[in-house]
Specification:
Elements: E1 8-12, H1 30-42, H2 55-65, H3 73-83, E2 84-91, E3 97-104, E4 106-110, E5 119-122, E6 128-130, E7 146-150, E8 153-155, H4 160-167, E9 174-178, H5 181-190, E10 192-196, E11 202-210, H6 218-224, H7 235-244, H8 249-253, E12 260-264, E13 287-289, E14 300-305, E15 317-325, E16 335-342, H9 344-350, E17 355-364, H10 365-368
Parallel strand pairs: 3-16, 4-10, 13-15
Antiparallel strand pairs: 1-2, 2-17, 3-17, 4-9, 5-9, 6-7, 7-8, 10-11, 11-12, 13-16, 14-15, 14-17
Helix pairs in contact: 1-2
Domain Lytic transglycosylase MltA: 106-263
GO molecular function: hydrolase activity, hydrolyzing O-glycosyl compounds; peptidoglycan lytic transglycosylase activity
InterPro entries: 3D_dom, MltA, MltA_B, RlpA-like_sf
Length: 372
């Protein structure tokens, strides 16, 4: 299949083409598949991406996954082998796919501000509205999905710099306050966090909306300035540089005009991952953020990367995953973000993932006939 606007093809493959498939154990996916099924049937279907695969195409597979408990890894793999056809995602420019990773940080916060806790996480403001082709001003790029409604006029919402300088102050939107604006920024990048209060209570926040401006990577800015090396850059090196140059933090962070708003989320079961864009809990090591304009949530993807070894004890990465999230920086048909889990160790794993990878999507056999 060719989609001119995205320039890629789905090429029929076999499970034998999936390097690492026979060593994978996708047993951990079935709970998430049940959650996706419940959302599609009881809430609403996921939006269809440009690849042309629909939530309805997925339902038969999800129905059969309901209550399924494989005895071992081989039986779990056989479930997909019997019901799905793999397709290699071939980029039009011939380049390989690319993966990064994300996690759910744990961050110390206070419910009230003081001299230590000064940097807020904000709820969605009431003057932020959703945009579409019917109400988006002509001077705003079609990528803007949010804007400001003030005095009957829709315009771009204030960006990161304006908000940090006090645009929302005094409106009662603060969920909690953190100690460091760098920590707040990285929670924005991750899109969720566990909040650790001084009294021992744990809270959780997750993405609610954003100001609408495009994401601009501060890492790329620091590479262009020659202060970080392209070959060794990671979340850790970016964070370390920012902490070492406090006088430059605002100017660098404001380069990324995108700003994220949060909502408080359930944390009654701390073993579950955060609920992300697909409206189901993420599964550590098995959840993938994809470009939702191209791909439809809930579909299984097999990701293979011989250079990505630190997630699997030195072995090349090869795992079946579910598309359960998206992100501003996740753009393209073979671009993914791997969820590594919650807390410090998960962050250490996620921060250094920047690897070429091959992307295969598993399509239920009835729908696969349209693409073969």
């Amino acid at each position: 299949m060719t989609t001119p606007s995205q320039d890629f093809r789905l090429e029929p493959a076999t499970f034998a083409d999936l390097k690492g498939w026979k060593d994978d154990d996708p047993s951990g996916l079935f709970r998430a598949m049940e959650d996706c099924r419940a959302h599609i049937r009881d809430v609403k279907p996921y939006r269809t991406g440009a690849a042309g695969l629909t939530a309805n195409d997925l339902l038969a597979l999800l129905d059969e996954a309901k209550g399924y408990e494989p005895r071992d890894a081989a039986e779990a793999r056989a479930f997909f082998e019997e019901r799905c056809q793999p397709f290699f995602i071939r980029r039009g420019d011939g380049a390989r796919g690319f993966v990064t990773a994300f996690y759910e940080p744990e961050i110390a916060v206070s419910a009230t501000p003081d001299e230590t806790y000064r940097y807020p996480f904000y709820r969605r403001p009431d003057d932020l509205i959703d945009l579409d082709d019917t109400n988006r001003p002509t001077d705003l790029d079609p990528s803007y999905m949010f804007g400001r409604l003030k005095d009957g006029i829709i315009s771009a919402y204030p960006d990161r710099g304006e908000i940090d300088r006090g645009y929302l102050k005094g409106r009662g939107l603060e969920i909690a306050w953190a100690k460091s604006e760098v920590d707040v920024f990285f929670v924005h990048v991750q899109g969720a966090a566990r909040l650790l209060y001084p009294d021992g209570r744990m809270g959780r926040i997750t993405y609610a909306a954003k100001a609408g401006h495009p994401f601009s990577a501060v890492g790329r800015l620091l590479i262009e300035r020659g202060v970080l090396d392209r070959t060794t850059i990671s979340m850790q090196t970016i964070r370390d540089w920012l902490y070492a140059h406090p006088q430059e933090v605002d100017e660098v962070l404001w380069h990324n005009r995108s700003y994220i708003f949060f909502r408080e989320a359930d944390v009654s079961d701390a073993s579950l991952g955060p609920i992300a864009a697909a409206k189901v809990p993420l599964v550590a090591g098995r959840s993938l953020a994809v470009d939702r304009l191209i791909h439809t949530f809930g579909f299984p993807f097999f990701i293979q990367s011989e250079s990505l070894t630190h997630l699997d004890g030195g072995k090349p990465f090869g795992r079946l995953m579910l598309a359960l999230d998206t992100g501003s920086a996740i753009v393209g048909p073979a671009r993914g973000d791997i969820f590594t889990g919650s807390g410090y160790d998960a962050g250490e794993l996620a921060g250094t993932v920047r690897n070429d990878a091959d992307f295969y999507i598993l399509v239920p056999k009835a729908a696969a006939q349209r693409f073969g």
